[in-house]
Design goal:
By secondary structure, the chain is of the alpha/beta class. It has two domains: 223 residues, Alpha-Beta Complex (Spore Coat Polysaccharide Biosynthesis Protein SpsA, Chain A), CATH 3.90.550; 157 residues, 60s Ribosomal Protein L30, Chain: A (2-Layer Sandwich). The protein has eleven helices and 19 strands. The strands form five sheets. Strands 1, 4, 5, 6, 7, 10, 11 and 12 form an eight-stranded mixed sheet that branches. The protein has a five-stranded mixed sheet with strand order 16-13-19-17-18. The protein has a two-stranded antiparallel sheet with strand order 2-3. Helix 5 packs across helix 6, helix 7 runs parallel beside helix 9 and helix 9 crosses helix 10. It is globular, with a radius of gyration of 22 Å.
């Protein structure tokens, strides 16, 4: 049975290091026109692999990323590697996935202290920050962890066109990545692989050496792209689903000796905003818009400003928690359009970073998030540089029977 994992970075040992391995040496060409392996096909103007790496680059708990590539893909990989600071030099992958993971493991520096290794599919670009962090924490606690979703359809064991067995569905789960392990356990499992006994995921290897693999809830949005049809994220939506609009608005006064955080991005500024959390006025407006569209109240109801648990908290964590509530209710984010009102500082250089950070927290493509910045022509409290305001409009796709109904 999968159990929900609530991540708190304070639960991690101080010396825990997390390395992510992404096996990307496959030659599968079922996606696109066959001119490139699917991990280098474009998604929102960047290779799918770029989006996958970015998901881990933006996770504070990830220290290093190693990608195993095919030698023929070196130019394509080199074209994107400069966009990331946590990315180690690529290693050449092997014939099988297990070979690629083992070579990546062998490339790591000598272990020191507690160390966790995550392995993630190169073509799962929509993994959320919350899921990454939950896998890390569960791997620290138990040594081996995977996310998985319950099978929702009846499964048949078939041979030569005849049903042999109908397994009990309640015990069947679809495994996802990232899969997390202590480095020692994964190295021991990888070393035990024999010729002719590869595996489609690392948990299978770990199971073979007698280690219990703990399961946490996966995410429906954490799709593995196999064909072009997999990019049609809304293709599964029922015709009876509704579109709902939500609006959010928030205001924060300026305060000395505080960082300025907008959309999860730290902005160079002489002063920040006053608030119980990190006072991210942009993210707060987006959260209120999401909650409003889902008829779930407002940010103050879910995250009271007199609750010590939320003092100084990163608002992207709050946004991710709202995302999980929406996912659990089957609600999908179609798009977010937000505006920050500030006389100073100049925000346009940071807009794309804000879009990326909030998209990662919501588990959606960056193209679904729009952020604009404007002044108020020196009118009102914003014009007098007493504080900032933000407003957001969101569109949700909601099942005909969902929360708030």
């Amino acid at each position: 049975m999968a159990t929900r994992c609530s991540f708190n970075s304070d639960d991690l040992p101080a010396m825990t290091k997390t390395t992510v391995i992404i096996p990307a040496a496959g030659r599968g060409r079922r996606f696109g026109d066959g001119s490139l392996p699917k991990q280098y096909q474009l998604l929102d103007g960047q290779p799918i692999l770029w989006h996958t790496i970015r998901a881990f680059e933006t996770c504070p708990q990830v220290d290093a990323i190693v990608v195993a590539i095919h030698p023929d893909d070196t130019p394509a990989f080199n074209a994107i590697r400069g966009d990331f600071t946590k990315l180690s030099p690529a290693v050449h992958g092997g014939q099988e996935r297990t070979d690629s993971v083992r070579r990546a493991l062998d490339s790591l520096p000598e272990a020191g202290g507690d160390e966790v290794v995550l392995v993630h599919d190169a073509v799962r670009p929509w993994v959320s920050l919350a899921l990454i962090e939950a896998v890390i924490l569960t791997a620290v606690r138990h040594g081996a962890a995977i996310p998985a979703l319950p099978v929702t359809e009846t499964v048949k064991v078939v041979a030569e066109g005849v049903v042999l067995e109908s397994p009990t569905r309640s015990r069947l789960y679809n495994a996802q990545t990232p899969q997390g392990f202590s480095r020692e356990i994964l190295q021991r499992a990888a070393a035990a692989v024999t010729d002719g006994a590869p595996a489609t995921d690392e948990a299978s290897l770990v199971e073979r050496v007698g280690v219990a693999v703990h399961v946490i809830p996966g995410e429906a949005a954490n799709v593995k792209i196999t064909t072009a049809a997999d990019l049609a994220a809304d293709s599964h939506v029922a015709a009876s689903d509704e579109l709902r609009v939500g609006m959010g608005y928030d205001v924060h006064a300026f305060a000395e000796h505080r960082p300025l955080i907008l959309g999860g991005v730290r902005i160079p500024s002489e002063h920040g905003l006053l608030g119980h959390s990190d006072a991210d006025v942009l993210t707060h407006a987006v959260i209120d818009a999401l909650l409003g569209a889902a008829r779930l109240g407002d940010i103050g109801r879910l995250f009271p400003d007199d609750d010590p648990a939320f003092e100084g908290i990163d608002s992207l964590i709050l946004l991710d928690r709202v995302r999980q509530v929406l996912v659990d209710a089957g609600i999908g984010v179609v798009n977010v359009d937000a505006t920050v009102m500030a006389q100073a500082p100049k925000l346009s250089p940071y807009v794309e970073a804000m879009c990326s950070a909030m998209a990662a927290a919501l588990g959606v493509q960056t193209t679904r998030i729009s952020v604009k910045a404007t002044t108020t022509e020196r009118l009102g409290f914003v014009g007098r540089e007493e504080g900032m305001a933000a407003q957001a409009t969101v569109l949700l796709r909601v099942p005909s029977v969902a929360v708030g109904d």
